[in-house]
């Protein structure tokens, strides 16, 4: 039964090549090369498994129902189960053998396999935790999150491919340089040996001079090779800087967006506080004007009183 369950999960992945998380009747036809069933029989199997009649099968419906169907077919072939009169050979709904956690685990594993995350991530726990949280609390954001993961892993895969291409090109160039210098050494050795044989007995001084000249040429070639190696290292360093600069630019853009949002919020808050301050200032000005008028009236009353007392 465990073997059949694992095989049925493979069948589900074959049907759901797009990673939709469900299987339609048309997707079911992809099992035709895998099973000794005709297209009409596969369609009947799909109709039998689609108990709610919504035209699609969830992983739980597919794996549970199809596992039962295959087990019945195996039992019939081995003559272990004799079908009673009037009983059909089609699949029968059984008890749910796949829990909700297994369904989520299967869908997340299927998503990570499609994204190729195992090649990029060493630990998927953080991504899985966020994916499960969105699935339970914010299911309408799950598709956007998965699209975001597709873009991120695509960019990471592109960066990894570029890195591998650069490494491959560097190895090829190094191998070519090694082969060239080895060939150069061999040519120079052959030439030196030949010249030694020709001139050793005739003119030792001239041979030594010419040998030194050849050694200078060899030294010059070695210096040229060293310059080429240094140039290659600089190119590799520039490529590494370009790749890291690309990632830093993305991070910087994200920080700038967040900073811009914070500045907008601060501007709105400041504008609101300024409006409140202007209102308070207006109230204070009105209060000061009222107090000034009251003071003038009081001075006037006191002056009148003094005038009367003086009179």
TrEMBL record:
<dbReference type="InterPro" id="IPR002048">
    <property type="entry name" value="EF_hand_dom"/>
</dbReference>
<keyword id="KW-0479">Metal-binding</keyword>
<feature type="domain" description="EF-hand">
    <location>
        <begin position="37"/>
        <end position="72"/>
    </location>
</feature>
<feature type="coiled-coil region">
    <location>
        <begin position="149"/>
        <end position="294"/>
    </location>
</feature>
<dbReference type="InterPro" id="IPR011992">
    <property type="entry name" value="EF-hand-dom_pair"/>
</dbReference>
<dbReference type="GO" id="GO:0005509">
    <property type="term" value="F:calcium ion binding"/>
</dbReference>
<keyword id="KW-0106">Calcium</keyword>
<keyword id="KW-0175">Coiled coil</keyword>
<protein>
    <submittedName>
        <fullName>EFC4B protein</fullName>
    </submittedName>
</protein>
<dbReference type="InterPro" id="IPR018247">
    <property type="entry name" value="EF_Hand_1_Ca_BS"/>
</dbReference>
<dbReference type="Pfam" id="PF13499">
    <property type="entry name" value="EF-hand_7"/>
</dbReference>
């Amino acid at each position: 039964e465990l073997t059949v369950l694992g095989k049925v999960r493979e069948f589900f992945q074959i049907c759901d090549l797009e990673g939709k998380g469900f299987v339609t009747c048309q997707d079911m036809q992809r099992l035709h090369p895998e099973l000794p069933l005709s297209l009409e029989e596969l369609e009947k199997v799909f109709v039998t498994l689609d108990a709610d009649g919504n035209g699609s099968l969830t992983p739980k419906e597919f794996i549970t129902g199809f596992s039962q169907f295959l087990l019945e077919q195996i039992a019939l072939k081995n003559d272990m189960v004799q079908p009673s009169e009037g009983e059909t050979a089609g699949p029968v709904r059984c008890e749910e053998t796949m829990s909700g956690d297994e369904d989520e685990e299967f869908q997340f594993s299927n998503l990570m396999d499609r994204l190729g995350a195992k090649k990029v991530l060493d630990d998927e726990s953080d991504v899985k935790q966020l994916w499960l949280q969105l699935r339970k609390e914010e299911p309408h954001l799950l598709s956007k999150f998965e699209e975001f993961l597709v873009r991120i892993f695509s960019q990471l895969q592109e960066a990894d491919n570029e890195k591998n291409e650069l490494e491959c090109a560097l190895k090829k160039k190094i191998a070519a340089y090694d082969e060239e210098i080895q060939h150069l050494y061999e040519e120079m050795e052959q030439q030196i040996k030949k010249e030694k044989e020709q001139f050793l007995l005739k003119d030792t001084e001239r041979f030594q001079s010419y040998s030194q000249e050849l050694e200078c040429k060899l030294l010059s070639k070695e210096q040229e090779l060293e310059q080429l190696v240094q140039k290659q290292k600089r190119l590799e360093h520039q490529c590494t800087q370009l790749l890291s600069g690309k990632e830093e630019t993305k991070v910087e853009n994200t920080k700038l967006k967040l900073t811009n949002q914070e500045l907008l919020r601060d501007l709105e808050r400041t504008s609101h506080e300024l409006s409140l301050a202007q209102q308070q200032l207006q109230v204070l000005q009105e209060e000061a004007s009222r107090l000034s008028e009251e003071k003038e009236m009081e001075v006037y009353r006191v002056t009148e009183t003094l005038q009367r007392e003086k009179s």
